[in-house]
Here is the input.
Amino acid sequence: MKKTILFFISIAVMSAAYSQDIVGTWKTIDDESGKPRSIVEIYENEGKYFGKIIKLFRDPGEDPDPICEECDDHRKNQKIIGMEIISDMKFNKNNDEYHKGEIMDPENGNIYDCKLWIEDGNLKVRGYLLFFYRTQTWLPYSGE
Here is the structure.
């Protein structure tokens, strides 16, 4: 009996460790400079996952609270801090990733299909258009 209980407990622990949740705050890193660019909060709402920018890391001389001049949708001329950039992601338990949503790049206003997954404790964020894609690694953020 004890062995059976221990077996089911170990299965539950392994399943929880494998199926990691993306909900939380993540630090985005600039691909070229390697510097932190923003903090994105990912949250769940009615079974779908969304992400909004809650903080920007700006260089001296840059606008600390910019607006999205490049956006071509409802976000045009809205403040980037507080802006939803990830939308409608759905969890696929078969491959342990979030997909079928979109991500918007506030620097150029482009919107891409998106896929998210956890790898080595970091969030992998892939934006793609047809067969072309770019994958970034976002780091867990707990405050500085």
Q: What stands out?
A: The chain has a mean pLDDT of 88. DSSP finds one helix and eight strands in the chain. The chain has one domain: 22-140.
